Each structure stands twice: as structure tokens, then as C-alpha cells.
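Take a look at this chain, C-alpha cells included, and explain the fold to me:
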Amino acid sequence: MKFSPRIAARFSPSAASAVARRAASVLLLALLSLSAAHAQDIAPSAQALTASRQLLDWLGVSALLEQAPLALANSVETEPGFRQASPQQAALWRRQLTARFKVPALQQDLLRYVAERYQAEAFERANAQLQEPLARRVRFFELATAQPSAVRGLREFREELRRLEQKRDAAARLAARRELVRELDTAAGTSALAAALQTYVGESVRRSAGAEPASPDLLRAEVAERQRYLAPFTEDYLLYAYRYLKDEELAAYRDLLDDTQLQWLLNICQQGLIATLQHPD
């Protein structure tokens, strides 16, 4: 039997190897999740808390929660229920939501969620990878974007991107670079995590204003829609943050993030972020 080139490629040794690796990754993720589920009834150890805190810091998830007050303010501003309520009622809802979404409490809840799923080997491997020289170099440039001057720098950088896109040679190089940061966004879950933050904060605002709870399927669809909206902005941000890194460095960092156990931890972080925002203390 003969196959077309496309079908034949699916049965090539390299393709078969990729399928096998993917199957092994899925199996490992399932085993790690099952093991973590059994560990949730045990209070996190000091070691688990320390390792989880470090990972949440390295992966930027704790820092993301610092944006919760801004997401809350934006959601309140656009929520029809708040505009239709009396000033006194709206003020009461706002105070209640502000108390529920205090950043330190959210970060502590997320830390506890991740630490309860601590697996020594997986966490230690991830921590070792994230402390490699390349990961530290990437982290340095990410932290640089926290400087006050970065806001203006990003705005000017985006204007320069628009100009480059009008030039054929530069546009081709930019397209390749953009594809690379798009893959990094997928691997790191940057826009996915931001979309989850906005969606679940917004859901709490709607419910405070008297709306019925949205179904899990509807919330997942809203996260996906927000992620599609945020993706181009995230790409511009990553292009700016990593502008001094070579393509080879970004490709290597993408491959590092694609590690099965790191992806398992990123998945736990996203689940923990959602659980924290759905049930803030």
C-alpha cells in the first residue's frame, strides 16, 4: 500500500518517535496528577511550601495575582449591574469585592494549592531547570519590564513594530520572530493565565451584582476568547521583553518550558489560579 507524502510522513520513524514521546508525556502527566491528588489530604511541609513559592515566583504566577485589583476595577467599571445599582449598593459591592481580592491572601491561597500537590522529584527538576543560566537570563529581561520606564518603552517599541511590518525584508524577519514568541506564549501559558485572571475576576463581579453563576463550559469559552484577544498584545510584550535575546536562546527556552514536568506544574498553577479566584477568602 502506498501513502501520499503527507500520510507517509505520519508513519515515518521520526513521526512515530514524536507520537511515542507524546504518549509517554500524557501518561506521566496522568500519573503525576493522580499522585498529587492523593497528597492533598496532607498539610504541606515546609519544603513543599518553599519549593512552591520559588516556582510560583519563577513562573510569574504570583506576580500575575498582583494584577487582580486592576482586573477587579476594570470589571466593576464595565459591569452593567453596578451601573444600574444605587450608589450605596454599588459601593457596598465594591468594598466586599476589594476585601475578597486582596493580593497577599490570594497569593497565600495559591501557594497552599500548589504546595498540596508537591511532588519532590518533579518540583526539584523544575527548580533546577529554571535556575539554569539561560532561564536566569530570560528572567533578568522579564524583571526589567517591571521598571517604570518600560511602559513608555513598550509603547514606542510597538510603534516601531508597526513601521517594520511595512518593510518587506524586516517584516519577514519579524514574522519569524513573532512565531517564536507565540510558541513561547503557548509553552509558558502567559496569555492563558492572564485570560483566566480576567475571566474569573469578572465572574465574581457579575455574581456580586446578582447574576446567575456561569457554567464551567461558558467560563472556559470566555477564557479562550479572552486569550485570543490578548495574544497579539502578549506577543508584542514578549518581543519587547526579549528583544536582546537571540532566536537560538528563545528556541532553547521554549524547549525548556515544554518539558513534561514543567508543563504539569504550569497546569497545576493555572488550576490553582482558577480555584483561588473562584473561592477567595
